[in-house]
Specification:
By secondary structure, the chain is of the alpha/beta class. 45% of the residues lie in helices and 16% in strands. The chain has 15 helices and twelve strands. It has helices at residues 3-27, 30-41, 52-67, 77-80, 107-115, 130-134, 156-176, 180-186, 190-195, 199-202, 218-228, 248-253, 263-266, 281-289, 312-318, and strands at residues 46-49, 72-74, 93-97, 120-124, 137-140, 211-212, 232-236, 242-247, 268-269, 274-275, 297-302, 305-311. Strands 2-1-3-4-5 form a five-stranded parallel beta sheet, with helices on both faces. The protein has a four-stranded mixed beta sheet with strand order 6-7-8-9. It has a three-stranded mixed beta sheet with strand order 10-11-12. Strand 10 (274-275), helix 14 (281-289) and strand 11 form a beta-alpha-beta unit.
């Protein structure tokens, strides 16, 4: 098999699955909205279940739902038959995955849902299968050909299940009015979690702020700038409001007779690059990076008053970059 043949196989798989996804998107209808409302209305948890490859997808859907603010768990149907049915309560909603709808391991879960009137949402390619007939809501995936030619291994079908699970999670997320800061609560680790931390989380506090009054002689302003080692000094009025800032660039522009000036005379008035404490770390990094000019430090300001300072190295240590 040549490299050209291998690439052709890869393209065939991707095109087959993309075509099936397009069919599913075009056919999305009322039951999808009903499923989102059923999941939204659940007072308990969303119980995802399935066997084999569908089980792996169900586990992933549960994880995605949980990370976006919905109480969700995965229950293995075989384990459910040996005691784990007790994990499913009357306030829960069951999301069961099976392409054929005839997965025998789901029989006890289906019967349990019927017995205790627990809403059952089916994700299947067979509306008239056992699972589809028992479900309160059927999310129908296209009965599209798998991407394999010689064997009927789950490929296209699991891609469809995964994508439909993502669609449910995102629709439910938006139905809840879920915000980036909410995601940070459930996902504090990793790069995305770092990006969703705030300037207030990462800033150095007031005790490390280099601040002087406008009438401060530049000799003293330089001392404050050097002691704190941020490469900047803020100029504040009597009420503590930030009037401007002095950076290395300001020093170079006023190098002639620098020590004869006051901080207010040398500062750049009203620095544009300041961060409110609720600004996301990712946004703070973008603000630092966007010219003109790019900067390495930001004052964190609340009600016009500096309450902290944030350096690009703080973002680096937090894993934002």
């Amino acid at each position: 098999m040549t490299s050209k043949d291998t690439i052709a196989v890869g393209r065939r798989v991707l095109e087959t699955e993309a075509e099936a996804l397009a069919r599913m998107a075009a056919g999305l209808d009322g039951p999808f909205a009903e499923a989102v409302e059923a999941l939204f209305a659940a007072k308990g948890r969303i119980v995802c279940t399935g066997i084999g490859k569908s089980g792996h997808v169900a586990r992933k859907i549960a994880a995605t739902l949980a990370s976006t603010g919905s109480a969700a768990i995965f229950v293995h149907p075989s384990e459910a038959s040996h005691g784990d049915l007790g994990m499913i309560g009357p306030d829960d909603v069951i999301l069961a995955l099976s392409k054929t709808g005839e997965t025998r391991e789901l029989a006890d879960v289906i019967a349990y849902a019927a017995r205790f009137a627990i809403p059952l949402v089916a994700m299947t390619a067979a509306a008239d299968g056992t699972l589809g007939r028992a479900a309160d809501i059927v999310l129908l995936i296209p009965d599209a050909p798998e991407a394999t030619e010689a064997v009927n291994a789950p490929t296209t079908s699991t891609t469809l299940q995964m994508a439909l699970g993502d669609a449910l999670a995102v629709a439910l997320l938006e139905r809840r009015g879920f915000r980036p800061e909410d995601f940070r609560t459930f996902h504090p680790g990793g790069k995305l979690g770092a990006m969703l931390r705030t300037a207030g989380d990462l800033m150095h506090g007031r005790e490390e702020l280099p601040l002087v009054a406008p009438e401060t002689p530049m000799r003293q302003a330089l001392l404050a700038m050097t002691q704190m080692r941020w490469g900047i000094v803020g100029v504040v009025d009597a009420g503590g409001r930030l009037l401007g800032a002095i950076t290395d660039g300001d020093l170079r522009r006023h190098i002639d007779g620098l020590l004869d000036h006051t901080a207010g005379e040398v500062m750049t008035p009203g620095p544009k690059k300041v961060a409110p404490p609720h600004m996301l770390a990712g946004e703070a990094l973008a603000l630092m990076s966007d010219p003109p000019p790019a900067v390495t430090v930001l004052f964190v300001v609340e009600d016009g008053k500096p309450i902290g300072i944030l350096h690009v190295h703080d973002l680096l240590r937090a894993g934002v970059m």
